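idk why but the lab printer keeps eating my pages so im just putting this in chat instead. protein + NDP:
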Amino acid sequence: MPASKTTKLNTGAEMPTLGLGTWRSKPGAVEKAVEHALKIGYRHIDTATGYANEKEVGLGLKASGVPREQIFLTTKLNNTDHRDVPRALEYSLTQLDTPYLDLWLMHWPAPMKDGGPDKEHDWRDTWRAMEKVYKEHPEKVKAIGVSNFSVKYLRDLLSFATVVPAVNQIESHPSCMQEDIVEECRKHGIVVTAYSPLGSDGAPLTEDPVVKKLAEKYKVSPSNILISLQANRPGVNVIPKSVTPSRIEENTKIVDLTEEDIQELATIEKKNHIRICKPFWTGWGAIGFPDLEDSEQQ
Ligand code: NDP
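predcted complex ->
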């Protein structure tokens, strides 16, 4: 399967299946990582206002020399910006130094202020404000979507939305596949972007014995198996993060896994269920994530 594969969004746009993640990619390193990725053929970059690196991502885009219209650029509305959606968009466009975003996501359905939950603000109003900006300024935002939306939250949103989100970006890897959310998204033509595909910082899932065994079978690295697992799922794309040039290159190899391989990878979650991005830090507790109710205690 070529790394140039794309997934069609409900807007008609093609979103490259493989993108470069940039969470915890520090200013300095991230600029070089984005430049390198684009120079070797990546055409999809994922950032967020919350990563505090949009400016450097923008510098990397420019340094690559790749024309803007060939790049699919995603950023996210910060949890602290739910009350001022138009201003947040202008901030991202200015930081990234770009006239438009290919995709703008609500990072979490969790408005925050002063380091805690903003209980007087409803995330539904945030979505309505994002719809308004999208409809009034198609030249600035090509598609809108959500992130960290469970099935419950998606159904709630779809009950009132006038724009169906193009994408739901969620955590997904063999220790947390979230097949229920992927299924629900497919039903509504929403593309899923799988984040933390390697198990996040330090890529712990590359050490899993099942992943290592399949890496040997296909003569690729464990990271290729984890990335391929997501890229092989219909309607799913994947955004591994790296600031290391050799890994950015390595991560572009995508292999066609068999149904048997996929089933074997799915056994990992049964033994070892891990969710990395727990919503308790937002102060909203396990919003929409019933399996995380205990995490409020952490
Ligand atoms: P990943 O699962 O992509 O793992 C990143 C880690 O793996 C880094 O430590 C990186 O190290 C290492 N790594 C990368 N490639 C390899 C390789 N080939 N071999 C060994 N180690 C490797 O984690 P993230 O949590 O960063 O998720 C990916 C992206 O998803 C984020 O960067 C962000 O863009 C997005 N995301 C979105 C969230 C949301 O709420 N919407 C939440 C979390 C992530 P190094 O960089 O040093 O090479």
